[in-house]
Structure formats: structure tokens, C-alpha cells
Amino acid sequence: MQRRLLAAIAVGLGAWRLAWAVPPVPEVAAFHSVIQNGGFEEGGERPTFWSRHPDQPENRNAQMRDTTVCHSGKASGKLVWLDPIAGSNKAWLQWMKYGLPVEGGSTLLVSGYVRTAAGVPGSRVGIHLYDDTGAHLGFWVASELGPTPDWQSFEYELPLPENAAKMGLALYSRQGGATWYDD
Predict the structure, then answer these.
(1) What is the DSSP string of 105-168?
(2) What pTM, to 2 d.p., does this model score?
């Protein structure tokens, strides 16, 4: 069975907390997922649901929905980072989504696949957490891989602080060429 890139929340049931002994099957994970279009199947050049940083292509840098390279399905999210990013915000080139609801005290499961072109030193998946006032609770690296010329799976579980209310998920590239995310 294929996995979809997801951030699945293990939902609280009364006094019990549901924790996955093994990652849930895709159908169960999709039911609990806060990520839409994790396989980058929907949209035009810019995939539905995702935002990007920087918001507009710069020089030879680009973020796009790629229908020529994918782990499964018909598309992936491609980041091409060749030139330095302009402006004051020098964060890595990324696909991202912020303001996603989470349940404090539950467990977040993030999984998917990544691939890099020759010359790209690696990739990173990051999670930002916020409380209900918008205060930043911290940043967690969910995956940091070196060069991955073949599709490489990643998986990360994060027990959420009790006061977590929102999250941001970022899929980063490193400078040097193309990085793809899927499933």
C-alpha cells in the first residue's frame, strides 16, 4: 500500500490517548490527516493546499508541481534551488502550510518520501508548533537526509505539548538543484 505524505493526529479518546504501535494504514491516516494533497496530485503548476517560500520564483529557483517525476500517483512537489535567495528572509526554499489544527497532548506522525537530484546536499522536513494565542512553542526537525538520488522514505513521531493548538509543516530543499517530495 502506498503512503501519503501526512501529518496524522492520534486523537484523544476520553482519558485515553490513541498511540500508533505501527504507522496506520493510509486509509486510517488520511481520515486523521491535517494535510490535504500530500501527494501533490491536485492543482496546476502550484499544487493545491501548499504555499511556498519565497512566494515567487527568483532567478533560476522554482517551486512547482512536477508531473514527470513521482514516487506514486501522477505528480510530486518539486523545489529547484540554484541561486541564493534574495531579501531579508533567508529561509531555505520550501513548500509549507501553517495554521493547521493539532490537539495538544496527542502524537503527530509525519511521513512521506523525498528524492534529490545529483549535487543537492540533502533535504529537511520541519514542524513549527504554536499555542492558541499564536505564540511559537518551538521547531522540530522531522527529517534531515543527505543526498537521496532514489526515493527515500521518512517518518517522525512527535508527542505534542499539552498547549499545542496549531502547527506549520515545511518541506525544505538545499541549494544545488532539484528536490522532490511525494506521498
Answers:
(1) TSEEEEEEEEEE-TT---EEEEEEEE-TT--EEEEEEEEEE---SS-EEEEEEEEPPTT--EEE
(2) 0.81
